[in-house]
Each structure stands twice: as C-alpha cells, then as structure tokens.
C-alpha cells in the first residue's frame, strides 16, 4: 500500500486525475492524504468533490479555509461564486456538504511519523493540545448548531491565543491557526494578511514562518501542510509543505509518505486562473 499526500487542489479536477494516473494510484490498495482547499477558484470544484466522495474510504482529508468557506456559503453566511455555484445547485449538495463537515482539522499517523493540518499547527500547541483542539472544532462543525457557531467564527480572525478569552475568540484562534496562518510575530501573534514568501523585509518586521518560530513547541511527527502557494514545496526535519500553486500557473504536487524520504511527483496545472 502506498500513502500519498497531495497539495491544495482548489477545484483542479483534471490536474488531480493526471497526478493520480502518474503515481499509479489505486483506491483499492493505496491511501491519499489531502491537505485541504479541495474547492474554489478552479472550475471543476463539483467534479473534484464527487470523485473524492466516490473514493472516500481511501482518502484522509483535513479542512482548509476554502472548504470552510464552502460550508459557510451553503449556510448563507458567505456569498457564493461561479466555482462554488455548481456544488450548491447540485442535487447532491446536502450529501457533499455533510461529508465535508465530517472531515478533520488534524490527521495523525504515529506509524508513518506524520501528521497533517491545512495551514499547520500553531507554535503555541504541542501535539496533544493540537489533537484536543482539532477534535473540539470537529465536534462543533458537526453539531446541529454548526451554522450559528460558524457564523460567529467567520466574522473575524483572532491572532492571539488566550486561554482566558471568550470561548468564541478561542475558537476563532483555533480555526484560524489550523486553516489560515502563515507567519507569526515575536509576541506570539499570528498574521493572516501576508501571503508572500518569507523574506528579509518580513524578518525585519518581526514576522517568521510559523514552523521556524523560536517559541514553537516541539512536535515529534513531521507536519504535512498546504495553504501557502508562495512558499511552494518546502521540506525540513519538521515540516513538509505541498501547496505548489496549481491554480496559480504552478503544479499539483504529491509526496509519498511510506518511504524513508518522501518521493515527490508533480504535474502541470490544467485549470489555470485567468
């Protein structure tokens, strides 16, 4: 059995199928880890969800900010767009949304030595904290009052972790850290605005990639994440970044995890943004 992790798809179904063909993926025997942002921007978001639903028993998914936005759009909290409309207008919309709501914010595999979250794991959290907080978000998103809870969270982001804060602000931080963070400040705040690559200018402003933060708690598992197309493919002893900007004239990337070192396979995007 092969285990492949794949970066942000964002509705690029043709690219996904080309990549799966290239790695000779067999859903009967192999496993896919998907870092989130399955939909939005790409014109084949519905086809992407339909295919992944069909092979759902062979897939591990963590939710990204665009997947959360899709759920929010389904509830009428956010405005739709031309790439999400086909999902919302599909006769299978409820089935697909319910399935997306059942996905994780954090996936952990001790045997492989990896865990996965869309944007990563906050420098404030050790693995036990991350597991506990991710489970809390999953419980809330799958509850009968998910639409009320989600509407509160999507009103703004919270960049500072404070255990004494209002529960809504704590949940905002948890959601934002798992799905939207890239940089953090020296005073432990997360930044959600800067989307570019790390640079000397940002370092001089006290902004550090979350995974290089001086105060980051040690996590023994390597963290697989996406969300950061400007960072691109990146690997060190602690993290493996797989968002290579398929929709932005980049590539869709897969990394085989069940090997001593990840085997990297890429395809050119077939569904470019104009």
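^ structure tokens above, recovered residues below v
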């Amino acid at each position: 059995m092969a285990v492949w992790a794949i970066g942000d798809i964002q509705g690029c179904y043709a690219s996904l199928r080309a990549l799966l063909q290239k790695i000779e993926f067999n859903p009967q025997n192999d496993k896919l880890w998907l870092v989130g942002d399955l939909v939005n921007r790409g014109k084949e978001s519905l086809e992407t969800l339909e295919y992944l639903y069909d092979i759902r028993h062979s897939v591990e998914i963590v939710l990204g900010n665009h997947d959360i936005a899709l759920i929010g759009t389904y509830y009428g909290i956010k405005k739709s767009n031309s790439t999400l409309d086909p999902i919302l207008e599909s006769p299978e919309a409820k089935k697909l949304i319910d399935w997306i709501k059942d996905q994780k914010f954090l996936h952990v595999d001790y045997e492989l030595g990896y865990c996965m979250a869309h944007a990563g794991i906050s420098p404030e959290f050790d693995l036990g904290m991350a597991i506990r907080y991710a489970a809390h978000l999953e419980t809330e998103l799958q509850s009968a009052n998910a639409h009320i809870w989600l509407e509160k969270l999507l009103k703004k982001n919270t960049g500072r972790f404070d255990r004494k804060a209002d529960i809504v602000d704590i949940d905002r931080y948890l959601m934002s850290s798992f799905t939207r963070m890239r940089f953090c400040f020296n005073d432990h705040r997360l930044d959600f605005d800067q989307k570019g690559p790390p640079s000397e200018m940002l370092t001089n402003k006290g902004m550090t990639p979350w995974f290089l933060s001086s105060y980051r708690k040690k996590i023994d598992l390597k963290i697989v994440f996406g969300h950061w197309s400007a960072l691109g493919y990146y690997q060190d002893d602690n993290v493996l970044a797989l968002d290579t900007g398929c929709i932005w004239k980049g590539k869709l990337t897969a990394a085989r995890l069940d090997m001593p070192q990840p085997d990297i396979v890429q395809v050119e995007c077939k569904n470019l943004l104009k």
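The chain has one domain: 3-268.
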